[in-house]
Specification:
alpha/beta; TIM Barrel; eight-stranded parallel beta barrel; 16% strand; globular
Length: 341
C-alpha cells in the first residue's frame, strides 16, 4: 500500500462529524459485561451482539471506522465477513493487535503490553481479512511514584515497533497510551503524567522512523482522578487537554481520537464537546469510544432478539451525540431528544 493510501485512510477515519467505535473487547472483558445481564459469553452471543451493533441503521452517518477483536474479524453476518459487511456501509474495518498487558517485571503496579512476537505475520493476515487500520493499547497508572521512566520507555518502544510494522504492512496504526483515571490525583497531576507519556511516545516513534502523517493517536483527556475530591469541570478539562497536546503532539499527526476511559457516556460527550468547541488545534479531533458508545445499547439488548431495534436506537443516539460533539454542536436538548425517542 502506498503512502497516499495510508494517509487517505487516516483522513477517512477523521471524516467530519464521525468517530470510531471500539468493539475490540477481549474475551474476559466482554464476558464481564455480559455477566451483568446474565448473558452467556458464547461465540454465538458475541457474534449476535456485534452484529446488532454493526447493522444499526444509519450508523455510518456518525461512525467512520470500527475496531474489531480477532474473533469478530473472522465471523460472518449472513454470507459476508464482518469486515466486508462494515465496508459495504462505508465503515472502515480495523483490528486490535496487542495481546493485553502483563506486570512489568521489577516495577510493582506497572504494566507492559504484549503481542510483538509474530506481529509481522499477523498483520499480513489481517490485511487479507480486510483490515485497513490497527490499534495497540498501553496502560499508564498514576501513583505516588508512578509512572516510572522505565515503564514509559518500555511501552513507548513497543508502540513504536508496532507502528513501524503496521506501516510496513500497509495498515494505519492507532497508538494508544492510556493514562488511567484510577486514583485521587488532580487535573494538574494528570496533565504532568500525560505530557511525560506523550513526549516519550513521540520520541520513540521518531527514533523508529514512523511516518506521523500515516498514524493516529488515541489518548485520554486530561482528567482529575475518579476519586479526586474536587474534579475539574468540562472547561478546565478542555483547557488542560489542549495545552498538553499542543506541547507534545507534532502537528504532522493528522488526528487525535479520544478514548472514554471509564467516563460515563454523557460526561465523555460533554467533555468532547468542550474540547472541540474550544478550537485552535492543528490536528482533527474526534472520538474512539467503547463503553461510552455501547453501554446503553447493551443494557437495552440484554441478549434478547426482541430488543435489537431498541438497542440499535440507543447506539445511534450516542453516536449522533458524539458526532455533534466533534463539531462543538452537542447540547442538553440533543441529549433529551434521544432519551425521549
Amino acid at each position: 500500500m502506498n503512502e497516499a493510501t495510508l494517509e487517505s485512510t487516516a483522513q477517512a477515519l477523521l471524516a467530519p462529524g464521525k468517530g470510531i467505535l471500539a468493539a475490540d473487547e477481549s474475551f474476559p472483558t466482554i464476558g464481564k459485561r455480559f455477566k451483568e445481564f446474565n448473558i452467556p459469553s458464547t461465540e454465538e452471543n458475541r457474534r449476535a451482539y456485534r452484529e446488532m451493533l454493526f447493522t444499526t441503521p444509519g450508523l455510518g452517518e456518525f461512525i467512520s471506522g470500527v475496531i474489531l477483536f480477532d474473533e469478530t474479524m473472522r465471523q460472518k453476518m449472513g454470507s459476508a465477513s464482518m469486515p466486508e459487511a462494515l465496508a459495504r456501509q462505508g465503515i472502515i474495518p480495523g483490528i486490535k493487535v496487542d495481546e493485553g498487558t502483563m506486570n512489568l517485571p521489577g516495577f510493582a503496579g506497572e504494566k507492559i503490553t504484549q503481542g510483538l512476537d509474530g506481529l509481522r505475520e499477523r498483520l499480513a493476515e489481517y490485511r487479507e481479512l480486510g483490515a485497513s487500520f490497527t490499534k495497540w493499547r498501553a496502560v499508564i497508572a498514576i501513583g505516588e511514584r508512578l509512572p516510572t521512566t522505565a515503564c514509559l520507555e518500555a511501552n513507548a518502544h513497543a508502540h513504536a515497533l508496532f507502528a513501524a510494522l503496521c506501516q510496513e504492512a500497509g495498515l494505519v496504526p492507532i497508538v494508544e497510551p492510556e493514562v488511567l483515571m484510577d486514583g485521587n490525583h488532580t487535573l494538574a497531576r494528570c496533565e504532568e503524567v500525560t505530557t511525560a507519556t506523550l513526549q516519550t511516545v513521540f520520541a520513540a516513534l521518531f527514533d523508529h522512523r514512523v511516518v506521523l502523517e500515516q498514524m493516529l493517536l488515541k489518548s485520554g483527556m486530561v482528567l482529575s482522578g475518579k476519586d479526586c475530591p474536587q474534579p475539574a469541570d468540562a472547561s478546565e478539562v478542555a483547557a488542560a487537554t489542549l495545552r498538553c497536546f499542543r506541547r507534545t503532539v507534532p502537528a504532522a499527526v493528522p488526528g487525535i481520537v479520544f478514548l472514554s476511559g471509564g467516563q460515563s457516556a454523557v460526561a465523555a460527550t460533554e467533555r468532547l464537546n468542550a474540547i472541540c468547541r474550544a478550537g485552535g488545534a492543528p490536528w482533527k479531533l474526534t472520538f474512539s469510544y467503547g463503553r461510552a458508545l455501547q453501554d446503553d445499547a447493551l443494557k437495552t439488548w440484554k441478549g434478547a432478539p426482541a430488543n435489537v431495534a431498541a438497542a440499535q436506537a440507543a447506539l445511534f443516539h450516542r453516536a449522533k451525540c458524539n458526532g455533534l460533539a466533534v463539531q462543538g454542536k452537542y447540547s442538553e436538548q440533543v441529549e433529551r431528544e434521544g432519551a425521549a425517542g
